[in-house]
Amino acid sequence: MPSFLTVVLNDERQFNAPDVRIPMLSLSRVLPQTAPESPYPYREYHSSYDTTEIISNDRLKDSCNLVLKMIDAIENNHIPINKYKGEIFLSRYNLFKDWQTLQEVIFVIDGKHSIAQIAEKCDLSFMTTKKIIDELYVNNLIDFIKN
Predict the structure, then answer these.
(1) What is the pLDDT of residue 12?
(2) Burial of 101 (0-12, 13-18, 19+ CB in 10 A)
(3) Where in the chain is the domain with CATH 1.10.10?
(4) Which CATH number applies to 80-144?
(5) Could you tell me how far CA 42 lies from the centroid of its own chain?
(6) Residue 11 pLDDT level (bands cut at 50, 70, 90)
(7) pLDDT per residue over 25-46, tens digit each?
(8) What pLDDT is recorded for position 3?
């Protein structure tokens, strides 16, 4: 079963139907079906009570920020490549802030993996990985593969 069919379904099912196949994502804040805290997906779902009045402004802002972070990740998911050989002289570049995480990221930079792939391999967020990559770039230690 495609993973998008495991959450609350909206129009993504129609857009991803056979012979349509328009890539579509769905963002959902509902609890899993197994969560005892509330009825699945939520009490008002597909009823006349499913109106804008039940929307929390704070949650809407959180969702908007998440979408903006997703767009930023897509736009900045470059492939870094080393401009150095061997170990980096970290104190020269003041890169001792999080030595272990830095070493994990540096080890994966090979000109084949995007920032998102590096983040996944290192079990880090995209933004944490991008921050490290940006520091390496500013210090002229890496470059990016041109697409």
Answers:
(1) 78
(2) middle
(3) 80-144
(4) 1.10.10
(5) 26
(6) confident
(7) 777 777 767 777 767 777 888 8
(8) 66
